[in-house]
Design brief:
Blueprint: H1 10-34, H2 38-46, H3 52-69, H4 74-94, H5 99-119, H6 121-126
Helix pairs in contact: 1-3, 1-5, 3-4, 4-5
Length: 131
């Protein structure tokens, strides 16, 4: 009789750790938008958005972040976070922002998917890195 091997807990633990950073960054960003933070308002004006867009974008950002943070909806959330962050990259490129500001949403997206990949064995089975 073969003894079944317990799954390695480290990928899940590292995945949870990688998941926390994008969630915290997105929650901070959403809270700045939802609170009407003067820095966020000025940043939006510089990017060509009207003041009225700040609340709407903050609600979208908070919504996709919550979907990503909840395990039952994390895959849908990751897809929506990717779309949201893609829009952020587009805006930063359009206004001629610095490379650091352009790459920040890209890095957050990579961390979000890496965290999800490591913490969800179903995703690892669907997209194996090696066979």
């Amino acid at each position: 009789m073969t003894q079944s091997q317990a799954p390695n807990p480290w990928p899940r633990r590292v995945g949870i750790g990688l998941t926390v950073l994008p969630i915290l960054m997105l929650l901070m960003s959403a809270s700045m938008k939802l609170s009407g933070n003067p820095e966020a308002v000025n940043g939006f004006k510089q990017m060509g958005y009207p003041d009225s867009a700040l609340l709407k974008i903050g609600i979208v950002e908070l919504s996709v972040t919550i979907l990503y943070a909840v395990p039952a909806t994390s895959v849908l959330g990751a897809i929506l976070v990717t779309g949201y962050l893609g829009g952020a990259v587009d805006v930063h490129v359009r206004v001629g922002d610095t490379l650091g500001n352009i790459l920040t949403p890209v890095i957050l997206g990579v961390l979000a998917w890496a965290g999800l990949y490591l913490r969800d064995p179903r995703l690892r089975a669907l997209l194996p890195l090696k066979r």
